[in-house]
Amino acid sequence: MSFATDQQAGSDHLSANAQRMLGLRGAVFATWEARVRERVAQARNVQHPILIDTLPVFYDNIVQSISPDYPRTSAVDGTTVAAEHGGERARITSYDHNALIEEYQIFRWAIFDVLHREQVVLDHREVHTIHSSIDSGIQEAVEAFSLVHSGFRERFAAALTHDMRGPLGATITALELILRSNDLDQIKKVAGKALTNTRRMSSMVDELLDTMAFHSGENIPLTITAFPMDELVAEVLADARTAHGSRFELHAHPVDGWWDRQVFKRAIENLVSNAVKYGAPATPISVKVDQLHERLLVSVHNDGPPIPPHEQECIFQMYRRAELAQRGDPQGWGIGLPYVRAVAESHGGSIGLDSSQDRGTTFFINIPIDGRPHAGSRTLVAGQAPGAATID
C-alpha cells in the first residue's frame, strides 16, 4: 500500500513491527472510537467520518516513523496533519481543549493496548517515538484549535493586489497594442490574450470573494450534487496534460460522494497548478484519489525543494503572498491555497501538507464522503470571542 501523505513509499519500506502496526490499524481505531464515545461527552453524537477526522493519516505517520529506514522521524515531521485535526475539532464539533487532549490520550492508550493484546513487542526506541509523536501531535492540535477559536483574521487586499498585478499588466499591454495596430489578424490574436488574462482575473476574484466570505464567518455557497470524484480529477488532469505535457500520473480508486463539483474542480486545479509552479521541472506529478473511514482523500504530490517548517501553516494564509513579495519573492504562494482550504473546510474537512527533502511535497484534501450534512458547518467570524461562532 501507499500512504496519503507520502506517495513515494509503500509498506515494503516498513520494519516488521511497523508492518504489524499497519495491519492493526482497524483494531486500534475500533478500540479508540468505542472508548472516546464512552469517555468524551462531546464525541458521543459526532458522526463517524467527522470523529475519525485526520487521525488515520496521523497513525500511518507513526507507523512510518518507527521504521529506522523510513525517511520520517516522527508523526509530525514535515506535515500539518495534527494541526488540521485540531482545526477541524474547533470548526465542526463542540469540543473544548480538554476533550481534544483527552481523545489523544485515549488514542495513545488504544495503540498500546491493541499492540499488547496482539503480542507486538516494541523496543525502547519505538515506544519513545510513539510517545513523542503523540505528545507533539497534541501540542500542534491544541495550537491550531486555539488559533481558530481566537478568530484569526487574514488580510486580503494586499494578496489580491500582488496576485492580480501580472494578468492586469498583460491585459493593459494587449489593449495598448490593439489601439496602435491596424492589422486585423494581430488585433484578434492580442485580443485573445487580453481575454484570457481577463478571465484569469475574474476567476481569481471569485476565489478571493469566496475565501473572504468563508473567513468572515460565512460559508462558500455550495451546490451539493452526487458525482464520482475520480472522474472529476481525471478531467482536471486531462486539461493539465494539454497545457503542461504528460508528466501527470493518476492513481484513483472509484469514489462516489456528495460535494460541490464546480468549486472542487477549481480547488483541484489550484493544487495541480501549484505542483507545476513549485515542483522540480520535468518530474512526475502524482495525484491520488481514495477513501478511508467514510472520508475522501485527494492528494497531489511533486518532487522538488521542500517547504520549510515555518512556512507550512502560513502558506494557507491569504496575506502571505504580500509578505513574500515585500521580501523580494517574485511568486509567493498566491490565493489558491487559502481557497482550497476554504473549500475543504466548507465541506466539513481540511487540507493538509507533508513536505521534506526525502519525501517531496504532498498536499492532501481530507473530507467526508457525504458533504451534505456539513455544508452549513460552523465557522468563526474574525474578531469574535471564543464561543461566539455563527452557524449559517
Keywords summarizing the entry:
single chain; 392 residues; alpha+beta; Globin-like; Heat Shock Protein 90; 3 domains; 5-stranded mixed sheet; 13 helices; 14% strand; disordered C terminus
Low-confidence stretches: 152-157, 321-333, 378-392
Provide the succession of SSEs: EEHHHHHHHHHEHEEHEEHHEE
Largest sheet: 5 strands, mixed
Could you say which overall geometry the principal axes of the C-alpha atoms support?
elongated
Tell me the helix content.
Answer: 40-55%
CATH superfamily of the largest domain: Histidine kinase-like ATPase, C-terminal domain
The assigned CATH architecture of the largest domain is: 2-Layer Sandwich
Domains, number:
3
The strand order across the widest sheet is 4-6-7-9-8
Percent of residues in beta strands? 5-15%
Using the coordinates above, name the CATH class of the largest domain.
Answer: Alpha Beta
Structure class: alpha+beta
Describe this structure as you would to a colleague.
- It is a single chain.
- This protein is α+β, with helices and mostly antiparallel strands and 392 residues long.
- The protein has 3 domains: 2-149, Globin-like; 157-215, Helix Hairpins, CATH 1.10.287; 224-374, 2-Layer Sandwich (Heat Shock Protein 90), CATH 3.30.565.
- The chain is 53% helix and 14% strand.
- The chain is built from 13 helices and 9 strands.
- The protein has helices spanning 16-23, 25-39, 48-52, 55-65, 81-92, 97-117, 124-149, 157-180, 184-215, 229-244, 261-278, 320-326, 336-346, and strands at residues 2-3, 6-10, 224-228, 248-252, 256-260, 285-292, 295-302, 350-356, 360-368.
- The strands form 3 sheets. The chain has a 5-stranded mixed beta sheet. Strands 1-2 form a two-stranded antiparallel sheet. A two-stranded antiparallel sheet has the order 3-5.
- β1 (2-3) and β2 (6-10) form a beta hairpin.
- α1 runs antiparallel to α4 and α2 (25-39) crosses α6 (97-117).
- Residues 159-371 form the Histidine kinase domain.
- This is histidine kinase.
- It catalyses: ATP + protein L-histidine = ADP + protein N-phospho-L-histidine.
- Pfam families: HATPase_c (PF02518), HisKA (PF00512).
- Keywords: Kinase, Phosphoprotein, Transferase.
